Predict the structure.
Amino acid sequence: MEKEVTRREPDSYRDMVGLRDTISGLFDDFFSGRPMLATRHLQSDSGLGWVPAVNIRETQDAFLVCAALPGAEKSDVNLEVKDSVLTLTGQVKEAPGDEEGWLRRELPAGPFYRAFNLAAEVDSGKVSANFKNGVLEIRLPKAEQSKPRKVQIA
């Protein structure tokens, strides 16, 4: 007995909504300062993996960075500060047997990379980081010579 094959007609409305969301996301990425296609995989031949989403805030005394690293372990994350550049690298491991059977996969796995040029010099000896519930919080105190000072007018 032959199995009947049913062809699914394209869902034009769903396709249009998907296209709209993709274009909207590109504009959001561009105007927010987030790199294009953040949290999506970079080209596999680049070897850089995926790009974690971050929030960065500058105060008078420091830069504060929060990076979303779902599924990462503290031991899988590397931070480096050199010449006013913060580099965040690491790897999110897939659970064994987690490679197939998914209907949809949006949580990233594999290597990640992110680097930022900071607008001021940082006191690298006082940088601190905390990792909790998949969120990495980094505090980068500004070097004394980079902090604003009030100047008396004579």
User: Anything to note?
Assistant: Confidence is low (pLDDT under 50) at residues 36-45. The beta strands are 54-58, 62-68, 77-82, 85-92, 110-117, 128-132, 135-141.
